[in-house]
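Hi C.,

You asked whether I'd gotten around to modeling the 255-residue construct. I have! Everything is below, sequence then structure, no commentary in between.
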Amino acid sequence: MSLLKRITPGFLRDRYLAIQTRLHNLETSVRHLNTAMDAMLVSPKYAPAEDVGFNGQRQRKRIFTEMVKAIAFDAIIETGTWLGNTTAYMRQTAGKPVYSCELNPRFFALANMRLADLEDIHLELKDSRKFIQHHRQTELAGKTVFFYLDSHWYDDLPLGEELDLIGSCWKQYVILIDDFQVPDDAGYYFDNYGPGKTLKLEMLAPAINKYNLAVFFPSARSTEETGGKCGGVVLAPRGPLSEKISRLASLREWR
């Protein structure tokens, strides 16, 4: 009986957590399906609008616009195409080729359909790590590249490996990570997938130290942001690029 008493609480806890995970996954699947259906019915082709791209966030768009004006990027690499709204927004705003990957076949097909009329957008159905690894072998490896990392919807969180692949190959790059915790502003949304899988600075510490990265957060408070109010962090190797970013009004360096 004493053994049963010791086992039962743990068993019930594990069952409860398993049910919670299944419910969360089901809710996520339904939400994604609704999003895909809405896009197909309401917006089968990409159309620029104030609430389209970068989660409809006006301040996030300001950050991107200031960066592409200050830095002569050769190309943009995005992980996590989703519906293609941000993909198209970056292409039209920066005027640079955009290379994007999506792991979900439905969203990949939908993005292909919605962006078919836009030039110099290159989509691939591929895991983000394999996608970045591939481009380490192309002409982009020696270029100045803007990376938008947004492929963290699944249990397998690739962010750490993405940063290693980028930092060990590129010399001139800037990274913007979506859904990231802004440490001093709880009003910004960020992703939390459980122990060790929360998108916050502790997760980035190895890469920040290894590749000597400067860290920047939005200057605007969450109360000034629109749309999804998703937090974000900008990373760049210390040197000419980080110095240019430090002069942008839309960002503040975190020390």
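If it helps when you're writing up: Strands lie at 75-79, 98-102, 121-125, 145-149, 173-178, 213-218, 232-237, 251-253.

Thanks,
B.
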